[in-house]
Specification:
- The chain is an alpha+beta fold.
- An eight-stranded mixed sheet has the order 11-10-12-13-23-22-20-17, with helices on both faces.
């Protein structure tokens, strides 16, 4: 049978299969190499030249993928905007609402105590806490000393609890006319004025800080009492309580205007009395007698006794300030003797050089304070009380008396008639009393009844009540006001807040650190969010 005959015997399907061209089989090995083989009719594979797989044409982005990309971009933008808005809102709220700032100090030195918060909330009139320096300068001091930062923080905290309280910064160097509002005061850039209406209280560095001296080399801030100082000042300028004091200036030529202004600023109502013609008001809590240069009449002296005895109810007070010169006042002296007090002749002097703050042995003498109710707020960190040209005080040991202020063991008394040969060293008997008080009245003998007593205070130094000392950085003003407050029954107005010591273990943030934190929150965090969004976008785009 020939070939033509063989073909005829094949089926139609076999003929079609036999005439197909040779095809390629693609084999991909483990190395991702593409190998082409020819497959012939015998099933034998013949190796061909290696070729790369043709690149598939880029397809258009599907609608679902497009929507997914847009959604990712929108979410990134929303997160970015939300982060920025959150920073802005928190910043604004921290200035307007209490509790938004975080105080990480061990004793909460940068936030108010509950006592201070209640005091702030009770303020009914506009009250200003004025720093007599521009804010940038004060911040500069705060950046190098955290105690100044604490003062700024405490001052601004009050306004968070009452929008009637505000802190402001006014440089008296750049605004010299500002001092015209306080013609009686000597102001400096370190002062802070707390004012409400016509009332004001001036705070200095010794009011705000407890200052210690390192030998005689330098002084440093040991702790802050800013909150207590602000509380006391706020209470003084907002209190509606008024205590009446009767002022007797008969026969006096000295000027006590500054002291009387201080009393009025502390809510004392002053009533001037001409003792020879008028009676002492019965509702006056205290009678103040200023430096008489001649004696009172027996009638005037009797009026003083009548006032102090108060129909056997007692409960009255008297403050007597003698002149630095010795004048004969037998009638007044007799009244003082009933309370166990005698004002001596001459002037007290001081030979201990470390106790002399003034120009000579009579001037600017450091006073040692006795222990009593109105010295409880004084400690070793307080500025000293000083006295100048003081008359000596003698207290009767058989009477109810107590020393208030005295000089050192090297002090003495120089008589008014002493000449140049006077032996100061030989006559330095020591511990000369220059202020004291005595009580008299009806004393209780059992625990069921209370004393009915009146108190007479005598301060031998009239200069302690003059502007020279009262406006200084010494504690005379604080001491005298504490004595008046205690004796007039105003102890309920005394504010005591624990002094804040900022130790190295406290977390403190200065201006530089605050700037870094601000940059991180306002710039770093948004940039991080943007970068994260771009990374996610690129990865999803190239998927």
């Amino acid at each position: 049978m020939n070939n033509d005959e063989n073909k005829k015997e094949l089926s139609a399907e076999e003929i079609i299969e036999a005439e197909k061209p040779e095809t390629e089989k693609i084999e991909i090995n483990s190395k991702s190499e593409v190998k082409a083989y020819n497959t012939n009719s015998d099933g034998q594979n013949s190796k061909k030249k290696k070729t790369k797989s043709p690149k598939a044409p880029r397809q258009k982005m599907s609608k679902a993928r497009f929507n997914h990309t847009i959604g990712a971009l929108v979410i990134t933008a929303v997160v970015l905007v939300a982060t920025i808005l959150l920073n802005v809102v928190v910043s604004l709220m921290s200035d307007k609402l209490p509790g938004m700032s975080i105080d990480l100090t061990s004793k909460g030195a940068f936030q108010l105590s509950e006592t201070s918060i209640k005091l702030a909330q009770n303020v009914k009139k506009d009250l200003k806490i004025t720093f007599l320096d521009d804010k940038q300068s004060y911040r500069s001091k705060a950046s190098s000393n955290t105690y100044y930062a604490q003062v700024m923080a405490i001052a601004e905290e009050y306004g968070k609890y009452n929008n009637k309280i505000s802190a402001e910064y006014i440089s008296i160097v750049d605004n010299p006319n500002f001092e015209n509002k306080y013609p009686q005061e000597t102001l400096s850039a370190d002062n802070i004025i707390v004012s409400c209406g016509d009332k004001y209280r001036i705070l200095d560095q010794y009011d705000i800080f407890n200052v210690k001296s390192y030998y005689s080399t330098y002084s440093y801030i040991a702790s802050s009492k800013a909150e207590e100082a602000f509380d006391g000042a706020i209470l003084a300028v907002t209190s509606t309580e008024s205590t009446k004091l009767a002022i007797v200036e008969d026969n006096s030529t000295e000027d006590f205007t500054y002291f009387k202004n201080i009393l009025e600023q502390n809510n004392y109502e002053l009533v001037s009395v001409k003792l020879e013609q008028e009676d002492i008001p019965k509702d006056a809590k205290m009678l103040i007698v200023f430096t008489p240069e001649k004696d009172f009449s027996k009638t005037a002296a009797k009026k003083i006794r009548t006032y102090l005895e108060n129909n056997k109810e007692y409960g009255k007070n008297m403050l007597y300030i003698p002149s630095s010169k010795t004048y004969k006042t037998p009638n007044l002296d007799e009244v003082l003797s009933d309370w166990g007090i005698t004002v001596g002749d001459g002037l007290a002097y001081e030979l201990e050089s470390s106790s002399v703050y003034g120009r000579n042995m009579y001037d600017g003498i450091l006073c040692y304070m006795g222990s009593n109710a109105f010295t409880s707020k004084f400690d070793d960190n307080s500025a000293p009380v000083i006295s100048s040209y003081a008359r000596p005080i003698t207290l009767d040991s058989d009477a109810e008396t107590q020393s208030l202020l005295q000089y050192s063991s090297k002090s003495g008394v120089c008589p008014s008639d002493a000449d140049d040969s006077y032996d100061f060293t030989g006559n330095a008997k020591g511990n000369i009393i220059i202020a004291g008080y005595g009580v008299n009245g009806i004393f209780a003998n059992d625990k069921k009844s209370s004393d009915k007593i009146s108190t007479v205070f005598v301060f031998g130094s009239s200069t302690m009540f003059e502007k020279t000392i009262l406006a200084s950085t010494y504690s005379d003003q604080k001491y005298i006001l504490a004595m008046l407050s205690e004796s007039c029954g105003r102890v309920d107005q005394e504010i005591t807040v624990e002094a804040k010591e900022l130790t190295q273990y406290d977390v403190q943030i200065d201006n530089n650190s605050a700037s870094v934190i601000g940059l991180v929150c306002y710039v770093g965090l948004p940039i991080a969010v943007i970068c994260a969004g771009l990374i996610v976008f690129v990865k999803r785009r190239n998927k």
